[in-house]
Amino acid sequence: NETTNEEGSSKADETTNEEGSSKADETTNEEGSSKADETTNEEGSSKADETTNEEGSSKADKTTNEEGSFKADETTNEEGSSKADETTNEEGSSKADETTNEEGSSKADKTTNEEGSSKADETTNEEGSSKAR
Question: Region labeled Disordered — which residues (predicted)?
């Protein structure tokens, strides 16, 4: 359900999509950033129901946020990583209820994830690509 799609990007019900970015129900999206129900988004950052967002960081209902880090009900958080109810997290990766996560990748209920790719309910995912079902 998309019209235009740049190299290495995945679009689902969206209008504009820069190279290497994923957009879902959003209006503006900088290169390499993901936005969901938000208004302002710095380059490479993800914002969801938050007001202030540093460059490369994602904040959701939290008070303190280091540069490039995402914290939600967690204790330890490395720089540039996003952790949500998980134990191990590599630099620049986002993990949610998963076990292994490569650098710079985001995983949600999946097992294998290549570098720089986003996977949602899928099995195989090439580098730099986003797949949804």
Answer: 1-133
Q: What span, in angstroms and rounded, lies between the C-alpha atoms of 86 and 10? A: 26
DSSP-assigned letter for residue 3: S
Record the pTM: 0.10
The two tokens of residue 29 are: 């999206």
Q: Over the stretch 29-42, which tens digit does the pLDDT of each residue have?
A: 445 444 444 444 44
Give the span between the Cα atoms of 80 and 63, in whole angstroms.
Answer: 17
Q: Are 85 and 96 in contact (CB under 8 A)?
A: yes
Handedness of CA 65, 70, 73, 76 (dihedral sign): negative
4 C-beta neighbours (distance < 10 Å), count: 10
pLDDT average per 10 residues of sequence, the chain (133 residues): 50 46 45 45 45 45 44 44 44 45 46 47 47 48
What is the four-CA torsion angle of 89, 54, 129, 83, rounded to 10 degrees?
20
